[in-house]
Model the fold of this input.
Amino acid sequence: MNIPRKVSAALSVCGLLFISITTVAQTAAAVVADPPKNWHTMDIKADGYYGISLNNAYQFVKGKKSKPVVVATIDSGIDTAQKDLKSILWINPKEIPGNGIDDDHNGYVDDIHGWDFLGGPNGKCDYTETVEEVREYNRLKDKYANATTATDGNEKEYAYWLKVKRTYEETYNKSSAEIGQVSQMMNVLMVSSGYIKRALNLNTDATFTLADLAKIKNPSDTVVKSLDVWTRILQDEGGDNGKILKEYGEYQAKINNDVNPDLTSRKQIVGDDPNVQDGKPYGNNILKYPDASHGTGVAGLIGAIHNNGYGIDGVADNVRIISIKAVPNGDEYDKDIANAIRYAVDNGAKVVNMSFGKKISPHKDWVDAAFKYAASKDVLLVQASGNDGQDVDIKPQYPNDTFADGSSNDSENVISVGASSAVLGENLAASFSNYGKRNVDVFAPGVKVTSIDMDAEFNTADGTSFASPITAGIAALILEYYPDLSAKQLKQIIIQSATPLTGTLVIKPGSEEKVDFSTLSKSGGIVNAYKALQLASKLKGERKK
Done:
């Protein structure tokens, strides 16, 4: 899963936070203004923020009728009661709600708004998992731990084992080192949060935001230190202290699971074998669990209801969202992703958003086959490039469209998206974003992006996980008004309308080196809804009937 950048980035200031709360008092950090909550929709010329020119896009199609487009999100689930989404959720027309019968005979009982491939009987769900390299290391270690060379007939598996072992050791060492840091950071945040709540006369279960910190007058030395801690965190990440503590707690659980993995939960909860693709149905129809925040925000960016006086406006204004839960806090299983893509395609999705990724893919052939199936049905797959600040041309992330059988290294129906920030300058490419001139197609807003959250809440976060649905939303918007365009044409339009920013020097993600922004992706540019619609209007549709 693509961990939001805010969690991992905070580790870099952990030591600073600890010093802030345990040493001499210091002046609270100055507050730097965040970009507007809807900056990702804005226009660089009109507004000064490098958004997707959404207002111009809607002016371009003003007066033109749109047709609804079904978009699937393969993610952590969704809050089906979120009022910015409730009326645009896909409804399975062949299923009778709540009767406990598989009315449409597709293998999924009461799949009204989608399906949960992590679910099990009695409403349980395997939403906390470890990463793939940990699972695979433990699966293969008894066979290969003492091996020094391949034997006849197992050369391919032995080579795979060496990759798994190397990746596992990197993950284990990193997570082992971080456990102490995260534990220390959580202690600092909990203690300092308590001081601030008392200064604000808040109940112990109350939350506070950056704006609340300014209400504290004549703070003691200890409160000054606490203000410094939380000003830095909230200034960088937005939201409130409760959400931040929740996300850090989830990350803490994840890295603990890397080092001391629970390898039994899948079998105990879901009951299937994730290494056997037998076609048997599994899962349940519950889409909202405690981890549904990510998927809710993703769906909101794609299509949250327009002009309802609440929340945000999604990129597309006439979509129906199929929610498919297949991404835990940890790495997704290839079996679930392959089945999720097929489920989306079979239920009419024309665009599928995939905001997840991992380092190892034991059943890549299953996922490749699902990618090809989507292509055969003219379905566009939009995926996040990942948040490791690395070149995926050199170090690939999975899934990807370089197929294991050698049949393709650039599918016509797959778009990979990097993350960009709000202001034109050296920090335009998000510091955490993966990049690649061959394997990343475009960049899109992914820094301090605001969307809806579970339980009528909102969240501002960073990640290619949010750049991807913004791009998927543009694809859906194009299809609303030009429904005859094929998945191949949609990809071409989105790439060609992202104007290359040749000459714009930026800090290359994951480094201090400056490079031309145009070298970081195939298009060399940032997605633009207005230019995409202009280009779409000039093409003759090639969609398969």
Observations:
- The first strand starts at residue 69 and ends at 75.
